Amino acid sequence: MQKTIALVAHDHKKPDLIKWALEHKSELSKHKLVATGTTGGLLMKALALDIHRYKSGPLGGDQQIGALIAENKLDCLIFFWDPLNPAPHDPDVKALLRLCSVWNVPVACNMSTADMVITSPLFFDGSYQRQLPDL
Ligand SMILES: O=C(CO)COP(=O)(O)O
């Protein structure tokens, strides 16, 4: 079952995300991919896959992906955020991660969790029904 997956990484984590995405290219290619601007540009080049790019994170891209979550249009977020360097848009990052909790969206913030999410039959065979907040 096709899902919509968002791919986002802070600058120091972009190499990790590209490496991870290349390893999982065949699975990722089955789904609709969206990303923040710079991350999306690098991934499109590396993967040669179509990726819908939102604005760069500091310019509102995290919030655009948050809006997808609030509209229940996102199934999974892979977000390699940088725990060692503060970002000018940290409030946006926090808001995005918060919405993942509110909407019970699977979110992977590091490579090992992302490995487990992308290989989980629970998630990708279409049988898993994610519980949604009361609307
Ligand atoms: O800053 C980001 C996420 O908070 C990512 O934005 P870019 O993909 O544009 O670098």
TrEMBL record:
<dbReference type="InterPro" id="IPR018148">
    <property type="entry name" value="Methylglyoxal_synth_AS"/>
</dbReference>
<comment type="similarity">
    <text>Belongs to the methylglyoxal synthase family.</text>
</comment>
<dbReference type="Pfam" id="PF02142">
    <property type="entry name" value="MGS"/>
</dbReference>
<dbReference type="GO" id="GO:0008929">
    <property type="term" value="F:methylglyoxal synthase activity"/>
</dbReference>
<feature type="binding site">
    <location>
        <begin position="56"/>
        <end position="57"/>
    </location>
    <ligand>
        <name>substrate</name>
    </ligand>
</feature>
<feature type="binding site">
    <location>
        <position position="14"/>
    </location>
    <ligand>
        <name>substrate</name>
    </ligand>
</feature>
<feature type="binding site">
    <location>
        <position position="10"/>
    </location>
    <ligand>
        <name>substrate</name>
    </ligand>
</feature>
<feature type="binding site">
    <location>
        <begin position="36"/>
        <end position="39"/>
    </location>
    <ligand>
        <name>substrate</name>
    </ligand>
</feature>
<feature type="domain" description="MGS-like">
    <location>
        <begin position="1"/>
        <end position="135"/>
    </location>
</feature>
<feature type="binding site">
    <location>
        <position position="89"/>
    </location>
    <ligand>
        <name>substrate</name>
    </ligand>
</feature>
<dbReference type="InterPro" id="IPR004363">
    <property type="entry name" value="Methylgl_synth"/>
</dbReference>
<dbReference type="InterPro" id="IPR011607">
    <property type="entry name" value="MGS-like_dom"/>
</dbReference>
<feature type="active site" description="Proton donor/acceptor">
    <location>
        <position position="62"/>
    </location>
</feature>
<comment type="function">
    <text>Catalyzes the formation of methylglyoxal from dihydroxyacetone phosphate.</text>
</comment>
<dbReference type="InterPro" id="IPR036914">
    <property type="entry name" value="MGS-like_dom_sf"/>
</dbReference>
<dbReference type="GO" id="GO:0019242">
    <property type="term" value="P:methylglyoxal biosynthetic process"/>
</dbReference>
<dbReference type="GO" id="GO:0005829">
    <property type="term" value="C:cytosol"/>
</dbReference>
<keyword id="KW-0456">Lyase</keyword>
<protein>
    <recommendedName>
        <fullName>Methylglyoxal synthase</fullName>
        <ecNumber>4.2.3.3</ecNumber>
    </recommendedName>
</protein>
